[in-house]
Amino acid sequence: DERILYLLDFFTEFNDVITIDQLAEQISVGRTTIVNDIKSTREILNEYNLNLLKKDCTLLCSVTERAPSVT
To answer: b/e per residue, 26-37, with b = 16+ CB within 10 A?
Structure first.
């Protein structure tokens, strides 16, 4: 999906805090749509051992490497 690709690019390039509503407005979609897109984006990032930081309704658009799990 084009929005998911946009979000992947956005999150890996933009190093600042943004609210979910601001992001929805930026790409001209509703809040529910962006929340679903963020969920899909987070799943893709997890496949590459990357993490999208979220606090309340704010996203830190910085992709950070997750610590490897210890087994």
So the answer is: eeeeeeeebeeb
